[in-house]
Design goal:
Length: 394
């Protein structure tokens, strides 16, 4: 077993994830709910979707993103709460303020989850483990809430570690034990291997992470293309992605310069639609929602104009991004038929969505769009079905 003396010679990364966050906040504010199956996001009549379930509710088989109708069947005496996003945001800010006391290198993954690069602060606070324990203790003492912590040499292993003994977990993966630990885990645990990729792997005879290493590299490349190398790296616990503080992820954009200037409105819109779809796909791949969409247009004389619009709510939906760029092109650009030589779309003011917590009040129409987007993401490109790449925003 690792001890307080586990040495991380290179990087030391923490992944911290609040346990059943929304539900735990509800219990915190109303102690009479303690020990009861609490579900946030659905109604007792079975409308909506469960955004978070207390561990007591999970014992009935309820999990987040399950329809409330199903949750009611599984757990008829459960307590369904509508949810108070403002309150969760308030606590989230307190949690992130505690993280910020230890390092500026905090990368939020969602409202209740973050990576911390603590490589540089060990001299000040002691080992990475001590630091992780200190944060865990402070969140319990100061906020009355429980957070699970993973300590490792990179993001992939840290996230894996925080999940291993949830709830109230604290797991250290020492650099020299990563490989053995990984070998026995189901392939699904590899970062980016979703349901579709898992099936593909199973068909290929790969069930455990270790199975991947037993297959000749050429065959893996044949099957999984460029991602084979990435998979193999993860399988041995290698992951060099940096922890990127949120302020550094500024925007995601794509633009294209035409060989011949284009004046035709339909043709421009078609190209713009494709760019918008690409930007939305990249947002989803990086786990971001955008608040602002910007259209960039360059005329034949090289004069360049940008027009922006703020979305009613942050989005990564292809349709939202497309519709916004369309309205910028036709409504705000004032092109008056002049030909363009370049057109571009940028999404900015990026935020991380609720992540694993799910959406509190999903609108059925929007949910349908999101499902479509997800299917399109899977269908898209040769390696589309394979991987959700990590969060290395550009
Ligand atoms: Mg959580």
């Amino acid at each position: 077993m690792p001890t307080e003396t586990t040495v991380f010679p290179d990087r030391a990364i923490l992944h911290l994830d609040m346990d059943a966050f929304y539900a735990s906040v509800e219990v915190l504010d109303d102690p009479s709910l303690k020990g009861k199956p609490v579900m946030v996001g659905g109604t007792p009549e079975g409308r909506g979707v469960v955004a978070a379930a207390s561990y007591e509710a999970r014992a009935f088989g309820v999990y987040s993103a399950m329809s409330a109708a199903r949750a009611v069947k599984l757990c008829p005496d459960g307590i369904f709460l509508r949810g108070r996003m403002d309150r969760y945001s308030e606590i989230s800010q307190q949690v992130f303020a505690i993280f910020g006391d230890y390092t500026p290198l905090v990368e939020p993954l969602s409202i209740d989850e973050a990576f911390l690069d603590v490589s540089g602060c060990r001299r000040l606070f002691g080992s990475a483990e001590k630091l992780g324990r200190a944060i865990k203790a402070r969140i319990l003492e100061e906020l009355g809430l429980v957070i699970s912590v993973g300590v490792a040499s990179n993001k992939f292993l840290a996230k894996l570690a925080s999940d291993l003994e949830k709830p109230d977990g604290f797991v250290v993966i020492a650099p020299d034990e990563a490989r053995a630990l990984l070998a026995d885990l189901p392939i699904r645990k590899l970062w980016g291997v979703g349901k579709v990729a898992e099936k593909q792997m199973h068909r290929f005879g790969i069930r455990k992470v270790g199975d991947l290493l037993a297959i000749p590299a050429e065959r893996l490349i044949e099957q999984f293309g460029d991602h084979a190398a990435h998979l193999l790296e993860l399988a041995v616990g290698f992951d060099e992605r940096p922890v990127i503080p949120v302020h550094e992820a500024k925007s995601i954009g794509n633009e294209t310069t035409f060989r011949d200037d284009i004046a035709d409105a339909d043709q421009l819109q078609e190209i713009l639609d494709q760019l918008a779809a690409k930007v939305a796909r990249r947002l989803r791949a990086h786990g971001f929602l955008a608040r602002t969409v910007t259209l960039k247009a360059r005329y034949a004389d090289f004069s360049t104009h940008t027009r922006s619009e703020t979305l009613p709510s942050p989005s990564d939906s292809s349709i939202d991004i497309r519709d916004t760029t369309r309205s910028l092109l036709t409504g705000k650009l004032d092109r008056r038929g002049r030909p363009l030589r370049l057109i571009g779309v940028t999404a900015s003011n990026l935020v991380h969505p609720g992540g694993g917590q799910g959406q509190l009040f999903p609108d059925p129409g929007r949910e349908r769009d999101r499902k479509l987007d997800r299917i399109m993401d899977e269908v898209h490109g040769k390696y589309g079905p394979m991987l959700r790449r990590g969060s290395d925003p550009t």
